[in-house]
User: Fold this.
Amino acid sequence: MDLVIARPEGLYCPPGDFYIDPWRPVERAVITHGHGDHARGGSAHYLAAAPGEGILRTRLGRDINLQTLAYGESIEHHGVTVSLHPAGHVLGSAQVRLEYRGEVWVASGDYKVEPDGTCEPFEPVRCHTFITESTFGLPIYRWQPQAQIFAGINEWWRQNQQAGRASVLFCYAFGKAQRILHGIDGSIGPILGHGSMEPLHQVYRDAGVYLPETRYAGDVPKGDPLLRQALILAPPSAGGSTWIRRFGDYSDAFASGWMLLRGTRRRRGVDRGFVLSDHADWPGLLWAIEQTGAERVMVTHGSVNILVRHLRELGLDAQAFETEYGEEDDAPAEPAA
Ligand SMILES: [Zn+2]
Ligand SMILES: [Zn+2]
Assistant:
């Protein structure tokens, strides 16, 4: 029996009668993490990992009906044992483990295998069937160690300071922005954030994650000499806006796994691209899949067919799984408006 099937509302567990990351409102939703393509409003009951509570309430509303589980803690629902395990993707991100009559399935949600200090590291969970993401499921995707990427960002920031211009770094507001703050050298200069990011920074700080001090960029007057020393984190949607012009002379950069593709950076029209992703790269996906010991692998969003073919060559029972997950959180970049 399949413990998870695809339905128009989302991934569905028939014996448990609940959904995982449904894209339409349902009665019971288990949420892997707070990115927009996984956590949507309107469902009657939510279940999520406890460290993600602040994020979900910030994004879906303070008064959602949310039950939380510590990582590794389990509950039973209609005979299905449900537990949540760290996915290493963003604060509170979880893989969902389902056990029913001796059969174990794990739905990964989005995951990353390199620990980054802003969330619990990915934990492989043994299972019979593993539902994996494949956002970067092509052999060309291989990440550099993150320390190298952060050193590159620090150096770019220092060079801009010496040239007397601001450093504007575009990145997604939830997950990526906090990972960058945690990873860079905060002693280089002042750090300013877009208004959409500050509440999320606060949730991370409340969860005990160290982030250097940030100021709301809107509080710094245009022409203030401080701007020439500052690193400014901004969501991609702020590119080309009047909000950006207040910073005067600036260099801009974009941090995303998609920056590995030169065409993406060109379309973005930014000076620099930093290849930094919160998803597993190709070796990371294969390592994670192997660690689960699963004989059967279902592949969701990303380069599904390439990964499915590769897994079949390895002797696994692999298949594509139709979902409506987009990649709002780490998208291959529309031109900046
Ligand atoms: Zn995500
Ligand atoms: Zn996703």
The longest strand covers residues 80-86. Residues 33, 35, 38, 89, 110, 329 surround zinc ion (ligand 1) (CB under 6 Å). Helices lie at 53-60, 146-162, 176-183, 198-206, 242-245, 262-268, 282-292, 304-313.
